Amino acid sequence: MSLALAVLTPFICAPLVAWISRYGRALAAWSASGVAALAGLWLAPLLLSAFEGMTTIQCLSWIPSVGVNLAFRLDGLGLLFAFLILGIGLLVILYAHYYLAAQDSLGRLYAYLLLFMGSMLGLVLSENLIQLLVFWELTSLSSFLLIGYWRKRASARRGARMALAITGAGGLALLAGFVLLGEMAGSYELTVVLASGDTVRAHPLYLPMLLLILLGAFTKSAQFPFHFWLPHAMAAPTPVSAYLHSATMVKAGVFLLARLFPVLSGTPEWTLWVGGIGVVTLIVGAVIALFKHDLKGLLAYSTISHLGLITALFGIGTPLAAVAGVFHIINHAIFKAGLFMAAGIIDHECGTRDMRRINGLWKVMPYTATLAMVAAAAMAGVPLANGFLSKEMFFAEAVTAGGQMRLGWLLPVAVTVAGIFAVAYSLRFIHDVFFNGEPVDLPRTPHAPPRWMRVPIEILVALCLLVGIFPAQTVEPILALAATAVLQGPLPPHDLAIWHGVSPALWMSVIALAGGALLYLGRKFLFRLHDRFEGRLDARALYERLLEGGLLKFSRYFIATLDTGSLQRQVLIFNLAVLVLGAVGMLGAPAALTGSRTLLPVDGVSLLAALALTAATLGATVLHQRRLTALIVIGAVGLLVALAFVKFSAPDLALTQLAVEVVTIVLLLLALYFLPNATPAESSPSRRWRDGGIALLAGGGAALLSWAVLTRPADSIASWFLDNSVSGGGGSNVVNVILVDFRGFDTFGEITVLAIAALGIYALLENLRLPGPVSDNAGRPWDADSHPIIMATFARLLLPLALLVSAFIFLRGHNLPGGGFIAGLVTAIALIMQYLANGVTWTHARLPARTHPWIAAGLIVALLTGLASWLFGRPFLTSAFGHFELPLIGGFELASAMTFDLGVYFVVVGATLLILINLGLAHHASHDVQGEEAR
Amino acid sequence: MEALIALAIGTLTGCGVYLVLRARSFPVVLGLTLLSYAVNLFLLASGRLVIGQPPVIGMAASHADALPQALVLTAIVIGFAMTAFVIMLSLRARAELGNDHVDGKDEGGAPR
């Protein structure tokens, strides 16, 4: 439980921190650090057992019916990473407080950082492979937000997109790999997977599985040839880079290699791919780093190189190499975080990161320079710094491994060359920035940084030295713990000491240090050489050609072909598709069109009404170019439909249709005021014939389908509702009982849709300025005498009566035709009548100006009614009812569903009024526009 | 009687489809209105035609199918919300584009 809490705490608190940041930057920093500390506190009770070498596994049942659990695991490796994530996270939070400019939102940065922290914690503490993958993808997403933090900068957006595209693609490959692995091992739980190494390695699909998982790990850890996203991610604020590219994001890939080491390693394929790619990345990164003029660019490529080093160590595959790999993960996290923060200070003080311009800063910030020098010495592998120890272990492992293969001497040579370049770029980082003459044309005059901005670096540098000088006393316990968890077996004998006697590794270190110094001295010549070959070999260009050129072009073509931006064409295609589907269904059916049901006799009135309906519909279509006339005829059609509802035993529908018809016609009339009065005859005759043909087919199809349905006997579930309406819902109007009780949850969804539509309309109408016409169709100016006095007076008199009718309809709704929907519409019409008869100004002053609260109140009432049933231990929206006696009034039924219906009522009233009144106001505003124009 | 309703549904659908295929926003909205009448009638009819037996317990000996009626009742109200939304969309389009062509272009010459 506590592991789940540790992972979830940052997620839950992230929005909270963003909110707190409104009340001051210091408060934001404190709360964000508090969250990181709290997450650490949850882990504290498990520390003791973890240090005893026990693995804690905690399982939360999630979807027990399909056997999906939330499973967390804390062992040495997870603990080490949790330490790095939370510890360096805390330092980064402190540092960001001073780094970020006042106009940048600190709360947003902290919220993203905490999201990322939670994802990383989840990743390293997951017991289940699929769950691990979910957190893996979450790190990709949250790092996207972090890298793109300065979202107004094109470089930040581009860097974020590139990182997401590459790591996201890797995540897909990883999913495939995990599924293969889980199927091979027979379980997705790590405990089982880690124990089934032999089965997995012997499986025929081992190689594809391995490559897929490596694709995931290598894209995340920026291994060659996927390394190019990392330098572009440097568009992020420096605290983010310090966090993502030292201890966390890019370490996720090597974490995966370490985690699955016992299962996947120990085969020639593993050594070839992991070791090979690692060594190539090591060298490529180190060489490019030397030639980067950008301070953070140099650090980025050095990160790539060091990740290659760690990968190569795991690739060598011996237990001792794995220990060295874990050791270098720790060391790199510490010194690289410190270096990024130092680079951030320099950038912050100078306003640029170009090392050709930043020179001689020693005079300004000697203290920061000293800190940076120690961290850079660790990066170069100078004795007494922590980087030296793990690097020498790496050299020793390279010699041992090289001795066991053909052309093995190449391996020590290659890693020594990489070492030489590492020393050279570390020297450049120090010498170019802090010495090397005077600064050139800096945008800002550098000063010593704020005291507390340096504190995180001081802590990290102190750790560099402590680990470097007293390794056995400081890092050994946690290293042993983590390495045991990686190996899942006994730890090989290893000796963390500065002096191992004269060994090949020592000589390689000496060569690297001396060669690096020489290389740096000859840098001028090398830079000229590099400039000549600049841009020839660029993985980024390939990525852009593939993604931007290939994939995006294809998507654009695909979309442009499907979506022509023409509604007419889309509607045509849609209708044709429906016709084809309908034709296939109808023509392919084996049964006869007419069914066996006895038909109802035709009476004269019905015949007349049906003919009127048909005639009115056709008339509206023929007359559609004269819009006002067509609208009036459509109103007649709606009333005839309401009559049909009356005839066919649907009184509720008839009432609803009647009310909605009134509102719709008023609405369309108001809208028509802003639209041209006539539709121009612009369709060609051939197009009209074509559309007429389609319409004929569609209408014929619908008629035949209706006929086929109507003549067949019905086998409905209605009898259940009829039988249970009174006993189960306490009402005799079955339609209303279905709406508010049996299918109350659906109705709740529907009133939500209504509310959203109303709000959408409100947004559409906001700031809408449309000029209205100044004269009627015949060119006569509008009558200035706007509101006839008789109509105004009667409308006011009618209002209480109408509201009474509405209340009556509402109250009887549960037992007789009526209910919340209809009562709401009646109330809305009564109020709209006031607007029509008395004018907007008069009415608006007497009614609440905003009906949004009514909608909200209605939704809340409906929701609370539903939730109230939880208090009685019943499912959502269970209704209760009873018979009550009151003096004078007599006996009556009350059901809790009526409260729900009240919610429906408020939503309907609020939404209808919101729509019509706001259109009416736009209408009113257009008069003002004309008035101004006239003046 | 069934034939009459089938005829009505067919006419409403056909005219609705024809209007929906027009080039200006107002006829399209009218077409949508006709189509929603057709769909509502069809849904009601799927419970089969019954005369004089409203689904209110105690009002008649047997009752019409209440389920399609409950469906159609909310469909009518939501249909109104959708009609309102589409007509506002067309007003907005007219304000932004200067004409009421559904594709945002004025084939007939000058705007308005």
TrEMBL record, chain A:
Residues that span the membrane, as ranges: 28-48, 78-97, 109-126, 132-150, 162-185, 205-230, 242-264, 270-291, 298-316, 322-346, 367-389, 409-427, 459-485, 505-522, 572-593, 605-623, 630-648, 654-674, 694-710, 751-768, 789-809, 821-842, 854-872, 902-921
Occurrences of domain NADH-Ubiquinone oxidoreductase (complex I) chain 5 N-terminal (ranges): 62-106
GO BP field: monoatomic ion transport
Lyase as UniProt keyword: no
Every MrpA C-terminal/MbhD domain range: 613-676
Membrane topology value: Multi-pass membrane protein
Keywords assigned by UniProt, alphabetized: Antiport, Cell membrane, Ion transport, Membrane, Transmembrane, Transmembrane helix, Transport
Domain (Na+/H+ antiporter MnhB subunit-related protein): residue spans on this chain: 790-913
Chief location of this protein within or outside the cell: membrane
Location of the NADH:quinone oxidoreductase/Mrp antiporter transmembrane domain: 126-403
Keyword Transmembrane helix: yes
PANTHER family: NA(+)/H(+) ANTIPORTER SUBUNIT, NA(+)_H(+) ANTIPORTER SUBUNIT A
Protein name: Monovalent cation/H+ antiporter subunit A
Source organism of this protein record: Candidatus Methylophosphatis roskildensis
Source lineage: Bacteria, Pseudomonadati, Pseudomonadota, Betaproteobacteria, Nitrosomonadales
Automatic annotation (TrEMBL), chain B:
Transmembrane feature ranges: 6-21, 28-51, 71-91
Keywords (A to Z) from UniProt: Cell membrane, Membrane, Transmembrane, Transmembrane helix
Pfam families in the cross-refs: Oxidored_q2
Membrane association type: Multi-pass membrane protein
Keyword Membrane assigned: yes
Entry-linked InterPro entries: CPA3_antiporter_subunitC, NUOK/Mnh_C1-like
Broad class of where this protein is predominantly found: membrane
Family stated for the protein in its record: Belongs to the CPA3 antiporters (TC 2.A.63) subunit C family.
Protein's recorded name: Na+/H+ antiporter subunit C
